[in-house]
Amino acid sequence: MTLIEWKDDYKTGVASVDHEHQELVGLINRLYGKIGTGSEDDVAAILGEIHDAISSHFALEEKKMSDSGYEDYWPHKEDHEHLLDDIREIMDNHAEGRYASYEQELAKHLDHWFSEHFRTMDRKLHGQIG
């Protein structure tokens, strides 16, 4: 089952960043495929992988922005924080046994976030600082 289809609109023009973004989309799709079919432990483990991978990716991206004096650092970082908050909320819902809503939350937040953030903020960032 696929939640997010990779689109050329998501490309930033930087091969290493695009590769990381594709890996993140793959993890999210792996999670989406496990929802309702995998064990609670499987889902929790994949949620943890997603959180770790995204946190790491964001830390590197934010360092590049800071080091280069990127003018839109704060709005970009704030968008990162919103996604991490969403993922932590989904993880909490799962840990507390509130499964009914997190599939919809996941679909809504992540699909929108990836389509908008990759296409706009990341494309601009990596177009300017590479």
Topology:
Blueprint: H1 15-34, H2 40-68, H3 73-95, H4 99-129
Structural commentary:
The protein is mainly α. The chain has one domain: Four Helix Bundle (Hemerythrin (Met), subunit A) (Up-down Bundle). Helices cover 79% and strands 0% of the residues. The protein has helices at 15-34, 40-68, 73-95, 99-129. The radius of gyration is 15 Å and the shape is globular.
Short description:
By secondary structure, the protein is mainly alpha-helical. It has 4 helices and no strands.
**In DSSP terms, counting alpha (H) and pi (I) runs of 4 or more, how many helices?**
4
Annotated CATH homologous superfamily? Hemerythrin-like
Name of the CATH class:
Mainly Alpha
CATH-level-2 architecture: Up-down Bundle
Helix and strand sequence: HHHH
Could you name the CATH topology? Four Helix Bundle (Hemerythrin (Met), subunit A)
Give the count of structural domains: 1
Determine the N-to-C terminus distance: 33 Å
Query: Which percent range fits the helix content?
Result: over 70%
Quaternary structure classification: single chain
> On the 0-100 scale, what is the average pLDDT?
84
Q: Rounded to an integer, what's the Rg over CA atoms?
A: 15 Å
Shape: globular
Uncertain spans, ≥5 residues at pLDDT below 50?
Answer: none
Number-wise, the strands total 0
